[in-house]
Amino acid sequence: MKKTWWKILAIVLLVYVHIGGLLFAVPRLRIHETIRSLYFHVPMWFGMTFMFLISVVYAIRYLVTSSKEDDIRSVEFANVGTAFGVLGMLTGMVWAHYAWGLFWHGDPKQVGAAIALLVYLAYFVLRSSFQNQEQRARLSAVYNIFAFASMIPLIFIIPRLYSSMHPGDDGNPAFNAYDLDGRMRLVFYPAVIGWFFMGLWISSLRIRYRALNEKISETEL
Amino acid sequence: MKKLVYLMLFMLSGTVVQAQDFEMADVMRSNGQIYVVVAIILIVLLGLFTFLFTLERKIKRLENKLNDKK
Q1: What is the ipTM score, two decimals?
Q2: How many whole angstroms from its chain centre is CA A44?
């Protein structure tokens, strides 16, 4: 994790995405230039899903190993995932204001994503309510599994069952809705990969900081 | 006759394309204003990356310090 090549890769990809996302040609659609928001808004949700996935894997691992490090990893990936989710929500609201006319439209996708984020916020509230470290780690690992299991239907399944204005929902497969043609894929996929590595990087810094904190408090005891 | 049908189809397809041609920020692109925006966004982005690298260096220094103590 401490190697630098994938951090450089993340930087190169994101620099490319920010240049290409603004300069390359996009299909001329009813939403005009705002289609470019797709390069920046959608990777936030991809990043959130990946971070939460890694978080739940470490939560399950904690239940097997009971190692403090797995608990730290689990909580920090959930932290960065939540940050991605908040950014995805805010960027989505700005885009919705343009495309749908309102910041908050009560669209099934918006509501589902908001509930999923609240479920994860409750995870942090739950963590802070324990004094005992082992108890906190075990119960929040169990809750993490519940949170992930509820996030998937809330964001990826339920909005598709209702009539939603969000592209990719309302029974449509996600990628054809905006005619994500070859040109857009050339920027979109690097954006997803770039932000994923960026999430790993920030998570790893937070994990190392937390591990240091633990070590220092151990030596003080 | 066949040629005429093709011609009509061709013209029709032309009008369909025109009807779907939505207004884009072509002026902003052609006069180069967009490069100013790109440059500014890149400065912010690179600044953030530099910040992350210095943060990592600080953490590494602290890790080494703690390991030396032990």
Answers
A1: 0.82
A2: 5
